[in-house]
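help with these tokens:
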Amino acid sequence: MMSYVDSILEPGEHIRYRTTVSSTVYFPALLLAVFAFGFLIVGANHRDTEEFFWFLTIVSAIAAIGAFIPAWFRRLTTEIAVTDRRIILKRGFIRRSPSR
């Protein structure tokens, strides 16, 4: 499957550098997952408040998944390229918004 950048190159134009959004977009999801794991460990060691920590674990895990999916989709649907003539930025999936 041809990428968007490859499909709009002009004749004789060459890609010098290709990238996407930085992987730091996953940081909030990773932080929430660490909290969920921490709540799971603490809840397993404190039997008197186990239900409360299970609740916090589930909420944090759902929030981590909820933060991961948009970050993954954003990274998947963003293309950045530098050619010998221009800079190309493509964002979006169905409704693309290219910047030239």
Q: What stands out?
A: The longest strand covers residues 15-19. The chain has two domains: 1-20+80-100, 22-77.
